[in-house]
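User: Could you go from structure to sequence for me? I need the amino acid at each position, not a summary. Structure tokens:
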């Protein structure tokens, strides 16, 4: 019986030959492949500018820097996300302010944003969690021009909201090309924006703050990617709809198989959004008698990996400078951390695998 993992990059002959072509060219650091990828990525998202980085976290950090966020400023975000969403807020010396999520989509609850904004709030980072866009019309209505919207689009490449691509919905957006993401280059990141001054700042910030030969206009980092990785990313970008399509088909089979299983709630897809299933995430309602731990064990005993994204709200981490006893302020996040369970949905999982996994879950539920 083959083991089924939670992620496995789909690397084909084209990716391999692209890497060999770059190695043979001798240009292996940031160069023409990065520039070509940026142009193709901007066109795909439907924005004027894309800038490539060596991680999604570097991209988010750069986005915040480009908005001149610093000490004394507040940045609103969701506590139900990867730590890489919020660490850049602290890297800029600003204060994270967490707003609870909405139960259906697991995304930040737009209705709670308005009252969380004060005169120190400079930005909000909504996360398009699991590959489903937030409700940007509702978010913009609540923000009402009082803060910049920075999309954390790391899980949402290829997804859309009202026929506009994820990554074109805020003032600036950040993507990740980490190995487990829907398209990948091992490590990597991208920001997208229509704002030329943000793109210019981003290019300086990723290169030591350099504005000309031995001219440094501000602090910067070495956040560059490489032509080797950009060559992989260019091939993956050409395949994005194919790869996302296989995720969506797998999700569809899970939905059909699991829709009526007691104790299991399949994911909700909001009207207006095109979900790209970075994760396929169930809720396990333990009042049915079926426990999440039990389900995880049964699947593991059958060679199937699962994931809990995420087991804790970000307010629980001491370095976030929030106190853990704040948990009662985030009831929807707290319940989600106890109920969510993500199943393998990536393109290398076959429909036969999906049916087998669903069968194990149905059997577990029937024995409660
Ligand atoms: C992956 C991810 C990041 C960080 O990306 P890295 O490339 O790993 O630095 C940030 N936010 C979210 C929501 C992510 O899924």
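Assistant: Here is the amino acid at each position, in order:
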């Amino acid at each position: 019986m083959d083991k089924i993992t939670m992620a496995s990059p789909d690397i084909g002959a084209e990716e391999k030959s692209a890497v060999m072509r770059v190695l043979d060219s001798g240009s292996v650091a940031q160069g023409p492949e990065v520039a070509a990828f940026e142009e193709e990525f901007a066109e795909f998202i439907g924005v004027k500018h894309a800038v490539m980085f060596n991680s999604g976290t570097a991209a988010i950090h750069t986005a915040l820097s480009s908005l001149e966020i610093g000490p004394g400023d507040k940045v609103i975000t969701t506590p139900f996300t990867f730590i890489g969403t919020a660490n850049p807020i602290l890297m800029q010396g600003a204060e994270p302010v967490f707003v609870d999520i909405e139960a259906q989509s697991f995304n930040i609850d737009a209705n709670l944003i308005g009252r969380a904004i004060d005169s120190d709030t400079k930005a909000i980072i909504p996360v398009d969690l699991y590959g489903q866009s937030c409700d940007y019309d509702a978010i913009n209505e609540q923000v009402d021009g009082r803060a910049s919207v920075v999309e954390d689009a790391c899980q949402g490449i290829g997804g859309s909201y009202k026929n506009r691509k994820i990554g074109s919905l805020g003032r600036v957006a950040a993507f990740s090309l980490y190995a487990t993401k829907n398209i990948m280059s091992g490590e990597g990141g991208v920001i997208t924006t229509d704002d030329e001054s943000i793109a210019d700042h981003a290019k300086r910030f990723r290169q030591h703050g350099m504005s000309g030969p031995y001219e440094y206009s501000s602090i910067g980092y070495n956040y560059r990617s490489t032509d080797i990785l950009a060559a992989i990313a260019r091939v993956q970008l050409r395949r994005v709809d194919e790869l996302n399509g296989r995720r969506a088909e797998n999700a569809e089979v899970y939905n059909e198989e699991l829709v009526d299983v007691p104790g299991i709630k399949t994911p909700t897809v909001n009207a207006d959004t095109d979900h790209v299933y970075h994760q396929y995430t169930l809720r396990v309602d333990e009042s049915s008698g079926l426990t999440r731990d039990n389900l995880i064990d049964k699947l593991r005993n059958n060679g199937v990996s699962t994931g809990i994204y995420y087991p804790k709200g970000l307010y629980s981490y001491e370095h976030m400078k929030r106190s853990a006893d704040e948990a009662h302020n985030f009831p929807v996040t707290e319940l989600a951390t106890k109920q969510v369970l993500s199943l393998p949905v990536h393109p290398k999982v076959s429909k036969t695998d999906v049916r087998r996994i669903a069968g194990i879950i149905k059997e577990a539920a029937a024995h409660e």
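One structural detail worth keeping in mind: The longest strand covers residues 49-53.
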